[in-house]
Structure formats: structure tokens, C-alpha cells
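Aim 2, interim progress. The first record below pairs a target sequence with its C-alpha cells.
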Amino acid sequence: MKSDIVCKDQLSKEGLTFEIGDAMNMKYEANSFDVVICSQVYEHVPDAAMLMQEMFRVLKPGGAIYFSAGNRLMFNEPHYNLPLLSVLPRPLAHLYLKMSGRGDHYYEKHFTYWGLKRLVRAFEVIDYTPLILSKPEKYKTEYMVKPGSNKQKIAAFISKYMIWLVPGYIWILKNPDHI
């Protein structure tokens, strides 16, 4: 794959490797990794629960998963830049995508906040979302949320009082059995 070649050519460092594989059937032994990164992936796989089981399996005792995920209840669906696409029933989402000329089939399967919480229920969840939105400069996210802006103030408020409405989440997942 081209992305694998680009990563190997441009990001090569000692001790760092890039591989392409099936996230729902990894070739690694159980307890192989200290850290697993799952950034905006769950909505792209056929079975998100199987993805979580595999990450749980390959995570070493004491390890953690960086998990960032979009919320189904987002206003603008980022893959197609279409308002409300992710909240529509599947048949209507397919039709909306076709009518917009941006595709034939809506493959992404976003979960709501509560669906995501069910998905990661085997883990202890440390939610960084409110922290990042309240202090974007500390977490180097000023490019997305300008500190002191109305957008930042509204986002911080929503993440504190209506977390289920935030368009995306950043969580650290730990296995309670591994702590």
C-alpha cells in the first residue's frame, strides 16, 4: 500500500516499524504491546467489538490504549463533510450520500457516546476530552480550538455538562485486570 511505503520512507526511525494487517485478527501473541493506538478507527471496521477484543488481547499487563473516536451525534460527518449524515438511518444515509455525489454507500458506523461506552466497557476509561477542551494550549490543540474563543468556551461547557454531545472523544483505556 502507498501509505505503508510513505510511512516507511518518511518516518523511519530506529525501533519503529509500520505494518499493514487486520485489526480484528492481529498476528501478534497475547500481551505483546505496552501501548496500542486506535485513532479514529472503530467506525471503519466491520465489527468494532471484535477490534476492541483484539486490542485487549494484545495489550500487555499495565498497558494502555490511546483511543480517539467520533460521536454519531456530530453535526457534520467528517469523512464526507455532510451535515447530519451520521445520524440518519442507514438507507437514508446511503441515499443522501448518492444524492450529494460523494459516494454510493455510507460505510462508516459511528456510535453515540453511550454506544462507545458500551464498546469499551471492559476497560477503565480515562476521559481527556473535557481537559483538552478546557485547556487546548496545554494539550497542543489550539489549531482546533482557539483558547478563549467562544467556540472553546462552548466546547468546554458542553464537555463538562453534556459530554454525550461532544463530536469526538479522546480516552485512555486501561485493563482493570492489568492495573
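The second target in this work package is listed in the same format:
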Amino acid sequence: MEKLNLICVDDQREVLSAVLQDLEPLSTWLNIEDCESADEALELMDDFDAEGEFVALIISDHVMPGKTGVELLTEVSQDGRFATTKKILLTGQATHQDTITAINLARIESYFEKPWNAEVLRERARTLVTEFIFDKGLDYTDYQGNLDQNVVLARLR
């Protein structure tokens, strides 16, 4: 069974705690990590890669000191090791241009505004991780009961 990681990035601890709480039901089959900066997230991703683990999904805030979330997700998107990693931008302060950049350069799969709907975020994360498993060609059978069954059925056709 492959080790799948989901990384949440936000410089505000209370927001990060809320995201982690909302995603907690996924922790039975995903390793969920939190980072308070883009640089911390990139280091963690390097560590996971060096250990042969997968970063299935990264959820990032946009407005952070140092690198913004869009800059982080763009860097991840351009790193061949993480070409299939799914990306969500979760923010309340992105401009129209930031959003365009996130779509065109960072190739995000989803955009959520704060405050978000916990169930919608959790289900979107489940869908994206399911897509990641199939995109990587991983054996999905160990995760079967946790995956988005619509994606599984569509991919098996």
C-alpha cells in the first residue's frame, strides 16, 4: 500500500486548524500534514519524495509571507516529481489576476473562497486524491472503500 500525503498550507494557525478538522475524516487512509509557509511545504514535499512517498494533494492559502500560495502551487506544478499532484487554492484574498495565474500557471484543480463549506472541501479532496491514484497508476484496491466511486467507475470503463 502506497503512502499518500495531503498537505495543507496556511500562515494563520486558526485557519489551518479548521481545515485540518474538516479533513480529519480522510485521515483514516491519508496522511494529512500541515505547514505554515510555502517554504516549509516545499521542504516537506522534498522529504516525502526522498522517502518514496506520494504527495497526492496540496491545499494552500494564497496570501502568506514570503511565497504566495499561487507561487507555491506554480512551483509544485513545474516540478516533474509532482506533475500529478493535485492542487487546491483556498483563499479569501486572491485578486482576479491571482486567480487567472493560479489556473494558467499553477494548474490548480479547484478554488475555494473562505469561508468554505467543509463537506464540499472534503468531498473535493476525496475526488482529487482518487484521480491522483489513477493518474499515477497506483493499486487502488487498498483504498477502494474510501475513494470517490464515481471516479473509480469512470476510470474503469
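The chain is about 45% helix and 20% strand. This observation will shape the mutagenesis plan for the next reporting period.
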